[in-house]
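Readers of this paper often ask what the protein records in our data store actually look like. Such a record has a labelled line for the sequence and another for the backbone structure tokens. Nothing more is needed to write down the fold, since each code stands for a local backbone conformation. The remainder of this section carries one protein's record, kept here as part of the documentation.
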Amino acid sequence: MNTNDYLEKVKLLLQADDLPPDELLLYLIDDCINRVLGYCRRQDIPPELETLIPIMTVRYYHVSGFDGSVDIQSMSEGDRSFSFASGTVRRDDWLNDFKARLDPFRCRKGMVPSDFDE
């Protein structure tokens, strides 16, 4: 699957009237691909993980705040008080949700720099 295929899937998952620029989504897709390759210690994405990249990208988009959402912890207005918190995912550990799916594809053999020259 190439990045344009991933882009189509990401747009399908976002289902928004005003989609973000393709450049932003392509950047997030590339970053997710690099994260998977780095975590799994691989040079290619296995076919079984190709459907995970768009899901990761959408999560990354939302968690990073690119969708314009703001986590409000509390707000007071006169004698009224409001408290909102998504609390589902911290911005720095969203990738942990995908480790169970990535672990079976992780290469346990250590790689040395010469392995990347092939």
Remarks:
- The mean pLDDT is 82.
